[in-house]
Amino acid sequence: MSVGTAIYLDDLHVGQTFTSGEFALDAQQIIDFARQFDPQPFHLDDAAAQNTFFKGLAASGWHTAAITMRLLTSCVPIGSGVIGAGGDIQWPRPTRPNDSLHVVCKILDIQPSSSKPDRGMVTTECLTLNQHGEVCQRMVSKLMVMRRPQ
């Protein structure tokens, strides 16, 4: 299936994997996001961040999550949209300036709805990795995915 081709519930199978392109992150992007959404010293100023748990400037986890979403929408072209229905998110290592992120998303489970035959719930594991292959974010989520329109 080529990237850009809309996919639906019946196009997916357990074990299927999608890999995104890359997103380059720099210090200014980290600071700009933090100013607007997560204004904490370790996201705003490298010098101030040196004396924190992070020992240097680190992107907000929510910034990493937003980048992940951007990358997911480009590599998992669900025709009905990527509609979240809950999940779990972990940030095992900080995202840093000059990291180049990409996402690997694996289908873990598919449950067609018994009451609404036009849709199902798909469980995915999405790993957001830096240029060294280190996991910066792990997200296991349930997505509502529609069947192909008739």
The helix/strand series, from N terminus to C terminus, equals EEHHHHEEEE
Number of strands: 6
User: What is the level-2 CATH architecture name?
Assistant: Roll
Mean pLDDT: 94
Q: What is the assembly state of the chains in this entry?
A: single chain
Strand content: 25-35%
Rg value: 17 Å
Q: So what's the overall shape?
A: elongated
- Name of the CATH class: Alpha Beta
What's the helix count? 4
Structural class: alpha+beta
SSE topology:
Layout: E1 17-19, E2 23-24, H1 27-37, H2 41-44, H3 46-49, H4 61-75, E3 83-90, E4 100-112, E5 119-129, E6 135-146
Antiparallel strand pairs: 1-4, 2-4, 3-6, 4-5, 5-6
3D architecture notes:
The longest helix is centred in the middle third of the chain and has 15 residues. This protein has four helices and six strands. It has a single domain, classed as Thiol Ester Dehydrase, Chain A (Roll). Helix content is 23%, strand content 33%. A hairpin with a 6-residue loop joins β4 and β5. Strands 1, 2, 3, 4, 5 and 6 form a six-stranded antiparallel beta sheet that branches. The protein has 150 residues and is α+β, with helices and mostly antiparallel strands.
